[in-house]
Amino acid sequence: MNTSLMLAFGTPAGELVRAGVLLVAFGLVLLIAESWHRRANPPVEWTRKLVHLGFGALAAPLPWFIASPWTVLGIAVLAVGPILWARRRGLLTSLFGVERSSHGEVYFAMGVVLLFLVGRREPVFYLISMFTLVVCDSLAALLGKAYGRHRYLVTSERRSLEGSAVFLISAFVGIHLALLLLTNIERGACVLVALELALLVTSLEAISAGGSDNLTVPIATYYLLVMLTPKPVDSVAPQLGVELAGWPLHFPWLHVEWVFQ
Fold first, then answer.
1. Among residues 198, 231, 240, 245, which is most buried (max CB within 10 A)?
2. Angle CA 79–84–89, to nearest 5
3. CB-count burial class (<10 Å; 0-12, 13-18, 19+) for 166
4. 190 by DSSP, 3-state: which?
5. Residue 159 φ then ψ, to 5°
6. Rounded to two decimals, what is the model's pTM?
7. In sequence order, which ranges of 41-160 are alpha helices (DSSP H)?
8. Which of 58, 75, 108, 126 is nearest to 210 (CA)?
9. What's the pLDDT tens digit per position in 246-255?
């Protein structure tokens, strides 16, 4: 039997084998995070973001690795099911040893499945959306936790202006470079689209509580890319001007809690 044919992209055997590889890799990420937590006892936020980054890195190449949305859905169910079981049993303290209530693992799986469903035929946009979810969110959380001094409330969760600034800057840089290097969009439009998208997604991330940003951020990023990228510079520029004028009003600046440490 031809092994290369069995593992070919889109074949039933190929889908099954590739799904198995990904599930094993997800398990290894959890094992590494849990081992690190038990041996070195780092802050739980670090181990949570290690899992976030590891799962995101594995999900990023999905359009090039998996053909069917049903396969991705199956992977998500088989990956999240044991995690939820472990949460009910009080296991995986590297993930769940935090005081705040979060269902980020469920939202993450939903976000990846929906993003793959709508974006698998636009792999560059899919990749950019995963970047905002994985890299920007992790940088904002870790650096905001370490250096955040000016905090604001979203329901019962505290965020920091420093963390939001990190999200904004990293989103702009990542989106701009990806559009510039991986697409044929004109240079001026790349800058304007990246700036407008970074402003909007940063605002959305700031108000998404309970881990729901794992769902809202990638889907919103993809939708905005689809809506904004066909437009020429002279069309995007006025939109950006309106967005810049209104952004301070719809970002939760008025709920800032000044913290001196």
1. 198
2. 130
3. buried
4. helix
5. -120, 170
6. 0.85
7. 44-59, 62-65, 69-88, 93-96, 104-119, 123-131, 137-147
8. 108
9. 555 555 544 4
